[in-house]
Design brief:
Layout: H1 2-18, H2 29-41, H3 58-72, H4 77-88, H5 103-151
């Protein structure tokens, strides 16, 4: 009997320890629509490649609850976004604003494509110039053979054409 009570107690404690703060049981549909729209614009700081609307991380759950509370307080979407960026920085936004600290996020991909095009053109031009450079040793060999024939020191063995 004592074991059963102890097991039930341990099971209840373990369940409580693993439980996250739950979502609201009977949410207001208007609040949920606004919360969902805002949550789709914010990055989960734990997952980093999911929105807080899609994430199951405890932090994402807390952020969704913060958004709900702020919507219930009557704050605007802009005020809620500003609150999140003040607290977590521009990284929390999936579409960060263009400014000095985020310029690399906006310009970086285009700069990488431009750099790739420049490297590609450089390689193509270099490869086109190689066939002319490959024929130079043959021309040089012919000049050397002519010089050797003229000086009489050595004769290059040439195949006979009979």
């Amino acid at each position: 009997m004592m074991r059963a009570v102890l097991a039930a107690l341990l099971l209840a404690i373990a369940g409580a320890a693993l439980a996250q703060s739950s979502e609201i049981a009977k949410p207001d549909p208007a609040v949920e629509r606004r919360m969902k729209a805002l949550a789709e614009e914010l990055r989960c700081l734990v997952c980093q490649n999911q929105t807080i609307a899609d994430s199951n991380a405890p932090l994402a759950l807390d952020l969704r609850n913060q958004i709900r509370a702020q919507v219930a307080e009557g704050r605007t979407d802009t005020q809620i976004r500003e609150y999140m960026t003040d607290r977590y920085g521009d990284f929390v936004l999936y579409r960060p604003p263009f400014k000095a600290t985020t310029a690399i996020l906006w310009v970086g991909p285009f700069a990488m494509v431009a750099l790739g095009v420049v490297v590609f053109l450089f390689v193509v031009r270099r490869r086109r110039a190689e066939p002319a450079a490959a024929s130079v040793p043959q021309q040089r060999r012919a000049e050397l053979e002519a010089l050797l024939d003229e000086s009489g020191r050595a004769e290059v063995a040439r195949p006979r054409s009979d």
